[in-house]
Amino acid sequence: METIPFTIEQFYKFIGERKLMAVKCRSCATLFVPPKNVCPRCFSTDLEWTKLEEKGRLLTYTVIHVPPKQFQSVAPYAVGIIKLEEGLHLLGMIRGVKPEEIKVGINLIVDFDTDMPSQWPMWPHYFFRPP
Amino acid sequence: MYNLLSGKEDALLARKPLVSIVSAGLSKFGKRKGMYGREIFAEAVREAFERCPNLNPKQDIEALIVGHMGESFEHQGHTGPTVLDWAGMLPIPAIRIESACASSGVALRCGIFAVLSGMHDVVMVGGVEKMTHRATSDVTEFLAMASDFPFEQWQGMTFPGLYALIATAHMHRYGTTEEQMATVAVKNHRHGALNPKAHMQKEVTLDQVMSSRVIAWPLKLFDCSLITDGASCLILTKPELARKFTDAPVHVIGSGQASDAIGLYEREEFTTLKAAKLAAREAYRMAKVESRDVDIAEVHDCFTIAEIVAYEDLGFCKPGEGGGLVKKGTTTIEGELPVNTSGGLKSKGHPVGATGTAQAYEIYLQLTEQAERRQVKDAEIGLTHNVGGSGATAAVHIYRRG
Q1: Splitting chain B (402 residues) into consecutive groups of 10 residues, what average pLDDT does each group show?
Q2: Inter-chain CB pairs, A–B, below 8 Å
């Protein structure tokens, strides 16, 4: 059986398939994102990909008014860190809610924008939105 | 202030310093139009040599270790020999250190390694960055490179955005207010107004800070440090050689450095920088001093919230009390524990690669009574706190008057 690599490229391939995936250590059951080739807790290389629930709670956020060039057309926009049901943290853009209505603690789900950029790194986007 | 009757002096005197600073230089910070980074570095070096007539630059300096963050700014890599050449110091070895905004704090630590190893008797450490010639959007992009590309930058995150996430978390957890953050800016601008080398030698009011335009909510323009050109350097030697070069050395008695995940989101807590706490713990232990022994500190106020978090990480107050500490006035130049008498990154400016040794320069001036209008009386123990990125690198150093 061909092993699926535990790489960032692969993580984004899954995003393109509308799947939020984490790496799970078969030795100590630690889950982690971003993917790494070795378990950060026990150094085991016996790993597997596992699909996450794609639901979380907002831990902290900001509203970016001065964006980098490639995000100028969507500014101002909110970006936050969520704690997924499995306990992992993920940072992403928050869409579908007015910035002034965002509060720490609100529930958000992970959604996907599978438009593929034409230049490196050619990764699709995930983002967060209210359920 | 450090109390000579506290019973700690025996331990302090018994502990041999790691290295001694025998001279230091700082370029004018600001918009250095028409000046290249290497030329600005040469300006800092010239001051360090002029301050130390007993030192023969061509004979005594054995190596240069220079912090520099971004080759994007000037389309120039290979910084070590480039700045060395312009400072007239060829052909000694030159090493460039990149640790984002902590580049020269780490360069200082590497200079300590170089001297302590016995490989070199006298080395120069320093840092340089030339930033203001680029458009703000370019600078934003280059600075963001110190954060995680696939999981932060790719999501639209910016550098102020990361510290805004820290601010929101701190406000939510501890009730820290935007006004408390603004107070950091007011304080540091008041200090910077006393520093002839500061980028923005101008006081600001609480209202001005609070009503400035939003960059990354809750951080506003005046919560952010300045995009600045500048360079800094220190000359380090073995403590036993220090008196050959100067009657007033400053000893480095503690050095700590630690790392954390590059991605802020990966960390357990967003209200503290774990690497800074670990670096501080190591530096305090090495120096055999505690946070309450510190008389004066330069901390990494890249954003106002960062200074509040620094107070907590360095043990100047308990977690969550940083906002109250600045509000009380404890950290003003007249206060019990003056912090960022130079004006800090906020008002003196933040040429990223130069910041770490620029902080040490201010402590050097203070501990040798050369800080003029912003001189703090009788300071014995100084501390610098230099952070790279959103806290993936932190370097803390502790100094004692020689």
Answers
A1: 42 73 98 98 98 96 98 96 98 98 98 97 98 93 94 95 98 98 98 98 98 98 98 98 98 98 96 98 97 98 98 98 98 98 98 98 98 97 98 98 95
A2: 99
Q: Which domain holds residue A84?
A: 55-129
> How many angstroms separate the CA atoms of B201 and B189, rounded?
7
Task: Judge whether A3 lies within some domain.
Answer: no
Q: Which CA distances in Å does B329 have to B140, B183, B207, B366? A: 32, 9, 18, 20
Count the Cβ atoms, other than its own, within 10 Å of residue B278: 18
Chain B residues with CB under 8 Å of A8 CB are 150
CATH number, domain containing residue B58: 3.40.47.10
DSSP-assigned beta bridge partners for residue A64? A77, B216
**pTM for the full predicted model:** 0.96
Among A63, A71, A74, select the one facing B216 at the smallest CB separation: A63
For B35, the domain range is 9-135+225-401
Question: How many domains would you assign to chain B?
Answer: 1
Judge whether A26 lies within some domain: yes
Report the alpha-carbon distance of residue B354 to residue B40 in Å, rounded: 11
Q: What's the number of domains chain A is made of?
A: 2
- By Cβ distance, the residue of B161, B164, B270 closest to A59 is B270
Q: Which site among A11, A36, A58, A62 would you substitute to test the B interface, given the most B Cβ atoms closer than 10 Å to its Cβ?
A: A62
